[in-house]
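Morning F.,

Quick status update on the modeling queue. The single chain you submitted on Monday has been processed. Sequence for confirmation:
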Amino acid sequence: MKQFLWLAGLLAVLNIEHTSLATDHFLTIGGGYSPTGNQISLEKNVQFFQRMLGEIYSGDVAHDIYFSDGDDAGRDLQYQDPTVKIPRAQLLLARIFRQTRYQDLQYRSHQVSGVRGRANKSNIENWFKQVGAKLTADDRLFIYVTAHGGRATDKKTPHDTGLLLWNSERCRMREFAEFLDRISDDVPVVVVMVQCFAGGFAHMVFDEGDARKGATAAPRCGFFATVHDRVAAGCTADINEENYHEYSSYFWAAMFGRTRLDEPIESPDFDHDGAVSLAEAHAYVMLASPTIDVPIKTSDAFLQQYSKLPSRPSSEASPGKNDKDKPQEGDAASSDQNDGKDDATDPPGDGEPAAELLSADVDYAILAKHATSADLAVLEGLSEQLGLCTSVKRGQATRDLARQLRDEKKKLDAEDRKQSAESKRLAGEIGKSVKTRWPEFANRWHPRVNEFLEKEGEELVKHIESHPRYARFEEFRTQNDELSEQRFDLDRRWVKCQRLLRSMDYVAMAANLSKVGSPEIQERYRQLVEAESCTLGDAADVHTASDGT
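Structure tokens below.
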């Protein structure tokens, strides 16, 4: 009898444990690689995410967080304190000797609550072994990464980009895919990553992260701030969240219905089904984010591998096809062309007439008929922002505008290089005069430097500001700031062209998949799009019907 009661009790405990796992689980990986790379915006991203989950989900949320140095009391977080004033002498010396980096920054310990441990590779791998491996088909896992990223270290595998963890540790995309393999193939996984070069991780939809090995059977999907060969916007020491415009600020605002400042937004419920899906949130970022990001999602990476676009005639070739007019990194002509079938401009499959395949160069009305509601919102919205709504051949019109913007930026880049060189020369002349008067400044760590700063600070300022080259030096510094803003404005507009071109390409490739993809590939793509169309909330609603495609 006692043995029976013991067994019944064990079964009850196991049932409770299983029931507790039948929910949405969240894993957040955040922070920088060191205190000087751990900006306050990363902390605030996690806090915004925590606040959002607390309102969307009733009760406790299964949320494990690994952030920078964990619960270490050290000063690991970098921020700007506008109340701290740098002495004028130090400010001028830093400009003259070109050592302004980190000068206006402060450090403290991070304030993310409920941190499970350091954001390092061993902790993350152990989480997948100890927690992720226990998830069941009733569960769903969301992974949010707000950190730094690095390029692939091997040019032969350009999508094997890296996630930079605490203490400058690196986790490659393929290593991350191995971690995901510890999760049962019947557990849906959603990843949102906002680090630089994050788009390489979109290849987690392939076995072992390798497109040559085919699509994984695991129900994974993901959304990424930018493509594998571009940096991302966002990491800043600015304490003012009003100035945060990185990918996840817009993505979570779309899901939450309010910004990180708690201001309501117009719902991006593009299919009018009463809920905002992850795919619709991604589309909202494409439209609303004013940054240099070129976002990408897993279904885009899938299409790049398994679908086709017709080759354009040489006279209409993209800038990337002309040696005299090479594309910038991340543009629609240059990205994702480095490993086999990833070239979006590859010719169609064997025996497939190019004329039967859609592309961005068909009449826009024809292309728009194949777009999902979210895709159509992006096409229409970006076209309006770029002033291209009346263009019938919208693909060519967008490429022409992108080329024009790039040419304008090249001129500004040349002017910037010229001004920077002159500014450096002037700084050298002023610095030489400072070291003539105070030879000890030839070495910042000379024991008398601090003495001079304290006792002769006013004289230092007068010496620098009275130099005959100082006024010209300041003039160049102001002009450089203005020039940088002009270049950035052109970059942002050029990026919107890339977002539009890519969106048109993906719509065309999705339509072409029925012509060039096997029935198995078409079904796997349908499942992937369905996974991307899920929402936050009840895990029972993991699979939502998608429109279009």
